[in-house]
Amino acid sequence: MRTVSLKSNPPPKFETTSYAWGDASIHDQIFVNGIPMMVTASSAAVLRRCRYQHSTRAIWIDAICIDQSEVGERNQQLTLMASIYRQCWRNIIYLGEPAPPVGSLQGGAQDITLTRALEDLIQYTMRHLNLESRAALEKYMWVGNIADIFAQSARHPPKNPQDLADLVKQVLPVFRASWFRRLWVIQESILPPENICCWGTETISLQTLLLAVRCIMSWEENLPKGTDKVIYAAYVLHTYTVIYAEPWANNGELLDALLTFSDHCEVTVPHDRLYGLLGLFQAAGSQDELPVLLRPDYSRSWIVVLADATKYIFQERRSLHVLNGVEHSKTSINDLAQPSWVGYLLESSSLGQLDGSQKFNASNGSPYQPHFLERPNELKVCGYTLGVVSEVALTQEKPTSSASLLKTYHTAYDMALRSSNDDQAGTSANEVVAYTLVGGKTWDRQRFTGNCHEICESAMARADLWPNGPPLGLAAAAEVPEGTNQEAARYAYAMWEAIPRRTFFCTDSFFGLGPPYISANDVLAVLLGYHLPVILRPVDGHGYRFVGPCYVHGIMDGEIVIKREADNILPELLVLI
After folding, report:
1. ∠ CA(70), CA(27), CA(50), 5° rounding?
2. What's the half-sphere exposure (Cβ side, CA atoms, 13 Å) at 447?
3. Radius of gyration of the chain from its Cα atoms, rounded to whole angstroms
4. pLDDT band at residue 156, thresholds of 50, 70 and 90?
5. Which residue has the higher pLDDT, 171 or 22?
6. 449 by DSSP, 3-state: which?
7. What is the DSSP string of 309-372?
8. Which of 166, 369, 477, 544 could form a disulfide linkage to 493, CB 3.0–4.6 angstroms apart?
9. Distance between CA atoms of 506 and 555, rounded to whole angstroms?
């Protein structure tokens, strides 16, 4: 082992390693400069697989090159990760040893190597898509929209499904490797100029593996159930390669995108959901030094670390857009130990965002103004409170037929009839309900701009929209047969997607569609720097819990802010906890 400087001229030539740590309690002995040293068994396996028998090989490996027992050194080394992996000449990815005989997969009468199986799958996909070269396939798979690729395979299924299933079965074992599930490997595999993957005695390029993942996903509807779960971790890695290559307007948007997918990966300690991506963040954002709010410190609590990261995103974006990702559970909304405005602390929600929300402008484009508090879990924002929630509809189960939507519709309609606020005046109850039940969005997640109430009435008048149940997914909704019921069926699908959000009524006569755990006495508000109205929950003497975004017809385009400013009414200072 020797010490080198990354700033030396000429720079040092070395390879890096990337591997899954596995069980840190299992150790093995190696010799470093002739001195015995205990390391994790996985680290020892990497070194034994990578070493040359008759020559030296310069390799950087974290288990040895970073003193894992010293928190200060770990914090300091984290700031160098981007430089280390970008300056190596190649990265060695150790995927492990395959279960079949080393370097091969069982392929019927004879063993088939992984390299051969991957190539066969890629060639099969090329032939089916009538593409003449691998370069053309890579362009199609990497540049093309994944939804369009899914639709293409759905319209043109394979001629020999069993042949396809056999090909996919041969390559799936490698994607079960724990390496794909670890968060740290993302920056370790994206930053280097070249990656080779070791699977037993075979070496394969990472680009080939990710191309195979894209091919498998394009056949998703034609493959055995569960295939998507096997390759999902590899697909998340592919998603991060796309995020890294994207041009971002600011570093806040970049960090938000990186953190959004971090809960799909495995980490040893929660801090690594942020710290394991900082190298990627530095490289993509062209930053020599990390901002103060993001500097690694394992001695701080994870909640404080993530709260600071969220504040950094708010400041960089001059926007509270990150609040889109906040969807509480029944318990998390009242858990005062966790800041309610940090969405990354929560489990992934099945609700999704109020899609099309980027097209709304409830705060009239007013930017977020950062305010600093001594208490790290609090966030000061400016905004207007509009009324107290007085009535909330019961949580609805997702209906299984168009007829069962009628109950939801009539409950909402009766509640909307009591809405007489000036900001919603001039709009019929039918129109308010029609827009509210779908959160102002169409079936394909765009903003509704047409005769929404007429389409809604058409949908409510038909009981045969879904003879086989609601269309499950955008592709199915897009292919509703043309005819008199097409618009109605798509409206009903948009309404189906909006459930289990709940309709509510405010003391100031606002009617809207709120988050699942909205309750009486919550407060409707508009926050400067955020494009959707929100529901807040007062906490005696402390501030507000952020319950979630909502839709209120008539105030989605800044009407409230414009009116209050015209009346010289200053925004309130609100504390979110």
Report:
1. 95
2. 11
3. 27
4. low
5. 171
6. coil
7. HHHHHHHHHTS-GGGGG----TTGGG-TTS-TT-GGGSPPPSS---TTGGG--TTTTPPP----
8. 477
9. 14
